[in-house]
Structure formats: structure tokens, C-alpha cells
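Example complex used in Figure S2.
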Amino acid sequence: MRQYVLRRLLIAVPSLLGISLVLFTVLALAPGDPFSDLATNPNVPPEVGLALRAKFGLDDPVYVRYLHWLTAMLQGDWGFSFVSRVNVDTLILQRLPTTLYVIGSSQVLALLVAIPVGVYAAARPYSLFDQLANTLAFIGFSLPTFFTGILFILVFSIKLDWLPLVYSTDVNASGVRWVLEQIRQAIMPVMVLGLFQAASMTRFVRSAMLDVIRLDYVTTARAKGLGQATVLVKHVMRNAMIPVVTLIALQIPAVFGGAIVTEQIFRIPGIGSLLISSILANDTPVVMAVTFVFACLVVLFNLIADVLYGWLDPRISLR
Amino acid sequence: MLDEDLRTMIDDVKDGRMDRRAFVQRMLAVGLTAPMATQVLAIGGVAMAQSPSPYKPTKRGGGGPLKLLWWQSPTLLNPHFATGTKDQDGSRIFYEPLASWDVEGNLNPILAAEIPSIQNGGLTADGKSVTWKLKPGVKWHDGKPFTADDLVFTWEYVKDPATAAVSSAVYNDLTVEKIDDHTVRIVFKNPTPFWANAFVGAYGCIIPKHVFADYKGAKSREAPANLSPVGTGPYKFVEFKPGDLVRGEIYPDYHMANRPYFDSIEMKGGGDAVSAARAVIQTGEYDYAWNMQVEDEVLLRLEKGGKGKTVYATGGDIEFIALNNTDPNTEVDGERSSMKTKHPLLSDPAVRKALALLVDRESIKKFIYGRAGLTTANYLNGPARFVSKNTSWEFNVEKAAKLLEDAGWKAGPDGIRAKDGNKLKMLYQTSINGPRQKTQAIVKQACQKAGIDLELKSVVASVFFSSDVANPDTYSKFYADIEEFQIPMTQPDPALHMKRYISESVATKANKWQGPNFPRWVNKDYDKVIAEAEVEIDPVKRAALYIKANDLLWENIVFIPVLHRLKVGASSNTLKPVISGWANDTDNIQDWYRET
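Predicted assembly (915 residues):
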């Protein structure tokens, strides 16, 4: 087991290097300039932009810049943002709590909806409930979040005026009111993201359950005279959840990565909106750091999922 | 003649025979008045009226929070590193210049005790120096006194190339001398008719010496104050999250009486313009949103029964179509649009004139920009005394067709005109932006009727406006026949705005396409007029020179002006913002209040 993890970690090193190289090259080849705002401002002579480019090393050849970046990264220095002139890690850490809170809650919501609905639908396949759940799930994952997001805003903030349209970073209250405010402003984004996730996850849970529910040992359990609830929860679900756990483990990096579109719509100051605004501003170090961290998380959680497999299902051996 | 009239009038004002208002009205009558009319008086020896803005609150604070929504949010809070207006707007909450531009384009003293004039000895007749008196008793947010040393330091800090300040150009050709603790003299290398550039407006913000002294030059990036500013402004710094939020609280020792009105300030960023308009106008969650680049139709709909309204400020921003003077399709020494070529179609004045007749400015205003634009024939649209009255424009398809016909451009079987085997087919590029694509469509339609075929191209804004040498789609490379975009006028003076198009500034491969003269227009007369205007101290002659420069651009159809664009903001119905078309939205933030 330990050997397996070690080997996987060693394999991860060259693949991460490869990922970083590809990311860096693509970003270096991409058009755009972090100082383009200066170009149309008649107050700023072009030399200023050129001097800034030279100062930040943008005129060096790509491989030199990559080596600089790599050595700095190995020493834990993630570089600094051209646009804010702030260290990238500070920027990311500032955004992390909000992302974890909003995206994390939406994942929890997705699970809370998907598992009971999926299990119940599988227990009575093709019943009215199953049909209804299926239809809603289809609608749910066919509607993109940018559409439902705007729809929610129009209905709940503009027509009904129940919920705030803009996610404020600092809620101006303390104690219980602060908590309530935090919840209130997160309702819409969490709903939008959570229900979208829940829709596809419900389908997944249902089919995993159906695979298991037909097996002989389930019939045996029923024949023993166990109640429906015990059979479903204790016998069927335990086995059916193995693929679901993998799915969840692979979703975790997305929790850190944020949700680009939804964050933009609700003005949530998360990693996703940091990424998109950095891309628009051609702030390469930030884009590089965010995408690279994301790549690392994907590799890491893949490994964790594999290890979890072995732990959940003793039939699978890791070699 | 005009010149003499003006001189007598200035004397009248000086001697008190005519009041200032009558003077401005008379100037209006002769077509010379301006937000900058008062600068004429200033150099003519009459002190500027300190335009008292109608500020009503009678005590400091008590106004609750002021919530601003900027859909692009500040990413740093050092005014001298500010790459975009958003950063300048955020910095301006905490830092202050000596003077700001008010709604009419007059100087409004902030940290200055008075606006320099010939009378108070601030200005000299040769235009080579200006003396500013500082307001005494002003304190930085950390309690240290504000003195002339801070101005001298700001100048040294900014002009140091290692600091990499974006405002360096403003401070390079001058020296700042301390006369006493509350007086500084700025000495210009050359006679400078527009003296109110250094220490005024966005790039004029003064930074404290005692905070930044250790972070001049190469270490500038490490200054903790880049993220937690210490200024003299109406609000003290509380919190900053780059790209998301700026927060400040009232500064109880602020140097202006009864100001600021609000107890705290918050500038939230992110999202898009339409939802920002909604949050202000429809739901009233925020008090003010900036830069409403939203179609007028949408704004009108939101305003119906809403909690807010749109506000407009007139500056000098111009949306135009530029015509290429060189051939974008021939490569010479690895460079397209090279100065060694001539445009095969646009070198014919008839084609240029026809194109100008084919831009339906009225429809573009009516259907696209609405209240946010004014039709114009001029490239230079403000301040009013620099605006030419000699120009005109019309939209006339028949006239354009006739003009082309007479010049020998005959329609072919496909309806496209041609002459000597050259077809009237052109590439029309602009940045990706809803209104611009609609404008493209309107122009294309009219051109088609006159027998000109336009191929439309739109480039992502971040590429179009970049200075990336490797990219062929930038506006400065101009690998197209005509192109459209907007050039903002960032100060109420035309010098920088007009200097772009002198012959030596042509964008070429040799200068990495950094030359600002992207239409690649070469005209000796224009060069001469600009050179004269740069050193002309007499404000009337100087205005005449810039009018002439504008008329040269018009006669030669270097540009086809599309619209004179106004600045649009969204404000709650109760808020009284002070927005100038000549400055950043937050340039007069100390005067904002709420009427309840």
C-alpha cells in the first residue's frame, strides 16, 4: 500500500512537469499584453509600457521565463501578479474561503438531494416518482448555470426582492445576523450550482443502485425477512456507493477551482472569478498559478480516489 | 478680431466692468466659450472663480454607507501604478491631488490653498513655471503633516524609471522645487500652456514621503502601502481585496469642512455592466455604478419605475473610423501597412469623401448609443473653446455614389465599383463590443448601396488594444483598410489628444508599432500647427491652432468621427454624485452626498 502510494507520487512528478510546460507555453503563445490598458491612454507614452514589459521580464525568450518560473515555484514562490503587483499566493488565499464556502455547500446540497432521490427512485423503478425525478434531472442538467443564474436573479432579487443580487464580501453585521446574512446571499449561487450537480448525480446514483439491487445477495437478504429500509441502506447502498465516492473525490478539485460562470454572475469573489479576470487582463502569473494548482489537485485527488477504492472494496488490490 | 475682442473683455472682467458670468455668456455668443474659458481668464490675469459646488450637508458624517459598484474592480491602490481607470478610481478615494476637475472642467482646489493665476503670482507670463500654495494644516491619515516635501518626493518617486510608474510621462519634463513648507514651484523644461497636469487629476495624486521613502525605485513593488494606502482623502483605508473590494471609513480630520457626508465607503467589483445597472437602478442594492456601457434601450427599460437613474457627463471621448493611408495588403521588408506604400483605394480623395458621406451618424446615435452620444463632424470635441465651428457632416448615399461615379469608379456586374482593375473592397475592423458590431452593420449597409463592399472583422478587445508586437490584429498595426474604436480624452486640454498624429509618430515596425499615429498620416501643415500650439502661451491663439489642427484632420478625412461619447453612470435617486466628463468618476468624491 505504502509502496503503491509512493510509486504513484513519483509518477505524478513528470506528469506535473509536463502539465506546467504545456500550460506555460500555451500562455506564452496566447495573444494579449497585461499593459494593453495603457496603450490607448494618450497620457501614457508607449515607452512606459515597454519599460514595464522589460522590468517584468516579458521580453525574455519563453524557455528562460519558464525556467525562472519553475525554479521560483520549487522554492515556493508563486510569482506576483503583473496587474496588482501582489504575490499570487496572497491573491489565491484571499479568495479560497469564499470559494470553499460557496462551492462546498453546493456540493453538499447536491449530495443531499442526489442520494435520497436516486436511492428512492431506484427502489421503485419506473414508478411515478422515478419518472418525475428523471424528468427533472434531465431538465436540470440541460439548463446551463448561466441561464438558471440569471433566471434566479430575475425572479428572486428583481421581481420578489427576497435575496441580494450582489454577493458582498464583507457582511456588515455580527453574530447571528452575520451568519444569516452569509446564508441569505449564498442561497442563489448554491442553489444554481447544487441543483445542476444534483441532477446528473441523481442519475448516477440511480443507475449504480439499479446495478446492485438486482444481484442475488439482495434477494437473499429480502428472503431472510429483512425490511425494505434495512435492505436498501445496509446491503444495497454500501456497494452501490463505491462508484459514487469516486465521482465525489474527482469533484473535489472543482471545489477549489471555483465556478467561473456562476461566480461572475453573482460577483462572488472566488478563485473562478480571479481566474477569469486574470485571463481577461492577461495576467499570466496568476493564470499560470491557478491552473497549475488546479492540475496538482486533479492529480492528487485521482490518487486519493484510487486509494479509497482499495479501502472501500477489499476485492480491489493495489499493486 | 476675435482675439482683440477677447482681450478687451478680459480687461473688463479684470477691472470689474463685466462680471464673470457675462464674460462666459459673451464667449458663448462668439462660439468660444468653454469649460476651460476660465483658464483663458486665468492666464489673462483674472483669478479663477472657485466654483462652489452646491454641497448641502452641514455636518461631517452621518450619511451611512456609500456603496459603489465598479464592474471592473481595482486591482491595486497605488495611483502611480494604476493601469486602468478602475485602479485610479479606487486609489482616488484615499489619495488626493492638488486640484481636481469639476463638472464644467474648471480646476477645483483640493490640497491647494488656491488655484494659481497670474494675479496671485502662481503663473508666469512665459508659461515656464507654476507656483502652488498648499493648504496648511492638512494631515495624512496616520497623523503626520502634509508638506511640500511630499510633493517633491512624489515627483522623485514617479520619475525614477526603476519605479516603473505609469504616470512618469507627466513628471519627466519638469522639476519640482520646495520654496517653503507650503509652497512648491514646478519649473517646466519648455513653455507649457497647459500647466495643470502635474499634481492634478488621477496621475496627480500625492503620496506620503514618510511612508514610501524606503520604497522608491526598484523596491517600489514591495511597499506595503501599495495595498494599504495612507493618504489625505476623505476616507481612511480599511480593507482591500484585489479584484474584489475596497473599503474605507470616514476620516474625521479631513481638511474640508462638513465633508465627507458618508460614514463609510465600499467599492465592490466584478460582474458585468448590465447587472451592475440592475443592482443600482432596479434593486437599489448599490448607490452608484460606473461606466454603463449598456445599450440605451436597456437602460430606459430599467429606469421605468426604478430606484435609480442614469447620469451623464460630457468630456471629449471620440468614437471614430480611421482610414489607413498605407497599403495593408502589401508587405515591404516584413511589414504590412508600411510607410513605403500608399493605399490603392483610399489615396483617392473621392473614396475618402464618399466613405464620410456613408456613415449614418444620426441612426447610429438614435438606434445604438441613445443618450450616451452626440453626433459630430470633429475629432476634437472639447473643451468647447477648442471645438471647431467650420466643419459639417452629412449622410447622403446618392451624393457618395455620384462622387465615386465622377471620379471614375464604375459599378461592375456584381454592383461593386472598380477603377483600373481595383475593386472598392475594404476590410473594416474593430474590437468585439456590441454597439461597435451594430455600427459596422449600419455602415456596411450604406456602403453596399453606394457600391463599396466592406468586409467586417472584429477582434477581441484584449488583443486589439494590446501592444503585443507578435500579434497582427492590434489597432496600431492596422492590417485593415479602415478601423473603428474610441480614444478617450483624459484631461480638458487637447495637447496630448492632438499630438498623436504628427508625422514623426507614425506606427512602424522600427518603433515596434508604438508610434501613436496609427492612421499613418503625414502632413507638414499639421506638424507645423501642432509644433506652434505646443509652445503658444496665448490661450486664444493656442485654441485657434488646435481648431486648425482639427480642421486639417477633417479636410483630409483622416478620421470619420462617429460619435462624441458621453460618460454614463447609474446612480440611486437620492444620491448626488459629482461626475466630471474630464476626470475620473471619483475625482470629486468628497462632494458626494445624499438628499433625503
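Residues 88-312 of chain A form a domain with the MetI-like fold fold (CATH 1.10.3720.10). Chain A has one domain: 88-312.
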